[in-house]
Write a structure and sequence with these properties.
single chain, alpha/beta, Rossmann fold, 2 domains, 6-stranded mixed β-sheet, 4-stranded antiparallel β-sheet, 19% strand, binds adenosine-5'-triphosphate, binds magnesium ion
Length: 285
């Protein structure tokens, strides 16, 4: 079987089974002068200002401990800003909501529920009947290429499969924003590459706004419309790099001149900030 045939098999064509929003109108994020103080010497996030338009794919890149997860958690509603505000579609965020789906680095599936019922959980909690919830779950599982596993339990899945179930679950209430905190961080390089392509297919199909936290510059440049770079602690947003590579992005794009240029720009910024972060963590607790 050729690589193209294998890919076609693993990444099923989209567009038949689920709701589509080709022209995204929702998922407008406004992070306005947000600072987060956890009570230490420095702010975890320092005066962040970021506007993300409906349907944009934004990667958040920065050294360890700079405040990426904290900033994302203010959009998720898990952390309330000490100063400033976060709005999604004009509504101030102060708690989690169904308009925002979340995928974490480590899967957070219920081990006692089948794959299908893990994905159906959100719609069920939203008051849908079990048949309708499972039907939604099945179409999302088809989208992530896991239909054959709907009756299995998470314990028998590989890491990549679990993350795909996690993505299906985060999409099950059709959120307008998908928040992903290093979702592919624990996966091997090949699985990761497949997951990235699958995610881009889903994103293009759904027209959903994505904030994607990563340490991986290649991943950020391959996926994003914009790469937003955070400084070492106290985390400030120091660069917003527009990635104009054509879409759909194919694996070959990584050899293009524009890709290499964007990657170098990110690398130069990150190297400096990572050195600063390392030095800070060496000298202060
Ligand atoms: N709940 C919390 N209480 C107190 N301090 C916290 C809390 N969450 C995060 N911090 C601190 O805030 C700072 C930013 O942490 P955060 O997890 O946002 O960084 P990060 O950029 O996501 O790091 P990594 O790349 O390692 O995941 C760190 O100094 C961390 O110790
Ligand atoms: Mg983090």
């Amino acid at each position: 079987m050729s690589t193209e045939e294998l890919k076609a098999k693993l990444l099923p064509p989209l567009g038949k089974t689920h709701k589509m929003r080709y022209k995204p109108e929702k998922g407008h994020i406004q992070i306005e002068n947000v600072s987060v103080d956890f009570g230490g010497d420095v702010f975890a996030v320092n005066d962040a200002f970021l506007e993300i338009m409906p349907g944009e794919f934004v990667c958040l890149l920065g050294p360890s401990g700079c405040g990426k997860s904290t900033l994302m958690n203010t959009v998720a509603g898990f952390v309330n800003p000490t100063y400033g505000s976060v709005k999604v579609d004009g509504m101030v965020i102060d708690k989690p909501g169904q308009d925002r789906g979340m995928v974490f680095q480590q899967h957070s599936l219920f081990p006692w529920k089948t794959v299908c019922d893990n994905v159906a959980f959100g719609p069920l909690m939203d008051g849908k009947g079990i048949d309708s919830a499972r039907s939604t779950a099945r179409s999302l599982l088809e989208m992530v290429g896991l239909s054959a596993y709907e009756k299995r339990f998470p314990g028998v899945l590989s890491g990549g499969m679990k993350q795909r179930v996690g993505i299906a679950r985060a999409l099950a209430n059709y959120p307008s924003v998908l928040l992903m905190d290093e979702p592919f961080g624990a996966l091997d390089a090949q699985t990761r590459a497949m997951m990235q392509e699958n995610l881009l297919q889903i994103w293009e199909e759904f027209g959903i706004t994505v904030i994607f936290v990563t340490h991986d510059i290649d991943e950020a440049v391959f996926l994003a419309d914009r790469v937003v770079v955070m400084s070492a602690s106290p985390g400030r947003l120091i660069a917003d790099i527009k990635i104009t590579l054509p879409r759909p992005r194919l694996a070959e794009v990584v050899t293009s001149e524009d890709y290499i240029k964007a990657k170098k720009q990110c690398m130069d910024l990150i190297r400096l900030e990572s050195m600063r972060a390392f030095e800070q963590q060496r000298t202060t607790a």
